[in-house]
């Protein structure tokens, strides 16, 4: 979550993308007679009931997205859920919010080597 402006946006991940990509970090296990799936890499924290996930996927809207808890993997399908989409005429004050941790570190290193103050 970014808190560098009065608008609160979240990076989200689509578990359906994990299934479609056959992500190696997606696991499933039996929990009290129900099969649940989750992300072993911790990109999203929730465990999802597979039967309900499949039911939601068959609906017009699909399962939807979950908030990103860790930097997404390259295979992850992500987006930014804007708190106030009607305010989109203003540019984001923190474009690094869209980058993963490794790219932010590289940008900060490049800035510090060039004599700029890293953020």
What is the arithmetic mean of pLDDT?
80
Number of helices: 3
> What would the principal axes of the Cα set say about the shape?
globular
How many strands appear in the DSSP assignment? 6
Largest sheet: 3 strands, antiparallel
Strand content: 15-25%
The radius of gyration is: 17 Å
Low-confidence stretches: none
Order of helices and strands: EHEEEHEEH
Terminal Cα span? 16 Å
Biggest β-sheet: strands ordered side by side in the sheet:
5-1-6
What structural category characterises the helix and strand content? alpha+beta
Residue share in helices?
10-25%
Features:
23% helix; three-stranded antiparallel beta sheet; single chain; 119 residues
Describe this structure in words.
The structure is a single chain. The protein is of the alpha+beta class. The protein has a domain at 10-84. The protein has three helices and six strands; from the N terminus they run βαβββαββα. The strands form two sheets. Strands 5-1-6 form a three-stranded antiparallel beta sheet, with no helix packed on it. A three-stranded antiparallel beta sheet has the order 2-3-4. Strand 2 (26-31) and strand 3 form a beta hairpin.
């Amino acid at each position: 979550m970014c808190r560098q402006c009065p608008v609160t946006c979240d990076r989200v991940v689509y578990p359906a993308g994990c299934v479609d990509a056959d992500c190696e970090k997606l696991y499933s296990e039996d929990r009290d007679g129900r099969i649940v799936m989750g992300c072993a890499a911790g990109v999203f924290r929730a465990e999802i009931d597979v039967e309900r996930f499949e039911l939601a996927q068959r609906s017009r809207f699909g399962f939807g997205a979950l908030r990103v808890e860790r930097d997404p993997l390259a295979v992850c399908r992500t987006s930014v859920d804007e708190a106030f989409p009607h305010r989109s005429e203003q540019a984001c004050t923190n474009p690094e919010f869209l980058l993963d941790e490794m790219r932010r570190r590289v940008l900060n290193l490049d800035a510090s080597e060039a004599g700029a103050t890293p953020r």
